[in-house]
């Protein structure tokens, strides 16, 4: 009986920690692959010379996180939804590396939000 209680408490704590963390960081599945915008929980970076960001298209129907944040759980066959970002005052969206997009990471989408 005591073992069963310990097991149930352990499972409960693990689930609770996962639920809490889903609103604190970007999708854990891709955390080592992309830069995480901690302000809105969206991944972002440079792709083919243009800044991109994670966005919510289909995922918005199941995401219950704070408004304006990206889904931290949705992916389609390990692909996230993303879009190219609008430019900023420093010129076109041109970038060479992910950190070049730090200044535009909170901009709105310029392209459609799609899985890719």
Describe the structure.
- This protein is α+β, with helices and mostly antiparallel strands and 116 residues long.
- It is built from 1 helix and 5 strands, in the order H-E-E-E-E-E.
- The protein has a 5-stranded antiparallel β-sheet, with no helix packed on it.
- Strand 2 and strand 3 form a beta hairpin.
- The longest helix is centred in the first third of the chain and has 20 residues.
Residue windows where pLDDT falls under 50 for at least 5 positions: 11-20
Strand order of the largest sheet: 1-2-3-4-5
What fraction of the residues are assigned to beta strands by DSSP? Answer: 15-25%
Number of helices: 1
Give me the secondary-structure category.
Answer: alpha+beta
Task: Summarize model confidence as the mean pLDDT.
Answer: 80
Say how many strands there are.
5
What is the first-to-last residue Cα distance? 49 Å
- Helix % is 10-25%
Instruction: Give the overall silhouette.
Output: elongated
Main sheet characteristics: 5 strands, antiparallel
Radius of gyration: 17 Å
Strand/helix succession: HEEEEE
């Amino acid at each position: 009986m005591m073992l069963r209680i310990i097991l149930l408490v352990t499972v409960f704590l693990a689930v609770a920690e996962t639920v809490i963390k889903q609103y604190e960081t970007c999708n854990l599945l891709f955390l080592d692959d992309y830069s995480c915008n901690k302000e809105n929980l969206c991944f972002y970076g440079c792709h083919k010379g243009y800044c991109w960001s994670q966005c919510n298209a289909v995922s918005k129907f199941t995401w219950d996180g704070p408004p304006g944040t990206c889904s931290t759980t949705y992916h389609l066959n390990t692909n996230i939804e993303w879009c190219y970002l609008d430019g900023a005052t420093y010129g076109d969206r041109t970038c060479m590396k992910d950190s070049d997009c730090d200044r535009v990471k909170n901009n709105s989408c310029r392209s459609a939000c799609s899985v890719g």
